[in-house]
Design goal:
191 residues; mainly alpha; 9 helices; 0% strand
Amino acid sequence: TKRIDNSFEKLRRNKKSGLFVLFFMLMAGPVIANPADPRLWQADMALQAESFTDARQQYLKLQVEHPHSSRLNYNLGIAHYREGVFDQALTSFARATETAQNEMLKESALYNLGNANFKIADYEAAVKAYEAALEIDPDDEDAKHNLQLAKDKLDEQEDEEEEDEDGEGEDEKDQEQKQDQQNQDQNQDQN
């Protein structure tokens, strides 16, 4: 499952055959990592084995040679996310969305960009990412579900901000009333 309410850490897996369908996809793009490169296979195997630190290190080495590979950026985003390094996951997923020539990869990257934004409580950005994912795949039930969760959290956040603003106004009124009372007390003492 990839819904953020039950197990947010479980990232998006391709609906048909898992995350590693990307492993076999050839992406068109200006620079792409050679899918036959044994280093790429090793990084993918580390990611699949949930050795996220090892996978991240290997992807970073490969990224030096292939900075525009959407597949590398996507898988690097997963490694960062699973390690809890959400700011780097955001960067990697954003790069993957910018360079993806494949709609399935782009939709998955946008979905996970939404998940990473949700994780850092940037609900507005999460909503935008989920909406963009749904433009590509309007039938994605998980994206619909997470979009609603992000909208609910955004509404809660906005309500809290309004309450804080109202509370500040009440505090100022309370301060003014106390000051008025003190002034009245002083005037009575002088009389």
